[in-house]
Design goal:
This protein is mostly helical. The protein contains three helices and no strands.
């Protein structure tokens, strides 16, 4: 779960980078605009992954994969 959350967070941050630098929203472009239901689902899943990654900051002595 940690690895998946990190991957989704990276995808989200790359999308935000594209928005900030080029004013281009890749998710919206791929899935029919920001208001499209699939885009909103993707934004929500990426947001939840970001929230999950917050928990990684507070774990002691564990790697990303729980080692």
């Amino acid at each position: 779960m940690d690895t998946l959350a990190l991957i989704l967070s990276i995808v989200g941050s790359l999308n935000w980078g594209l928005i900030g630098i080029f004013q281009f929203d890749l998710v919206a472009w791929l899935f029919g605009g920001q208001g499209a239901i699939i885009s909103r689902i993707i934004y929500t899943v990426i947001g939840l992954a970001g929230l999950w990654c917050i928990s990684l900051l507070f774990r002691k002595g564990q790697g990303v994969d729980g080692e």
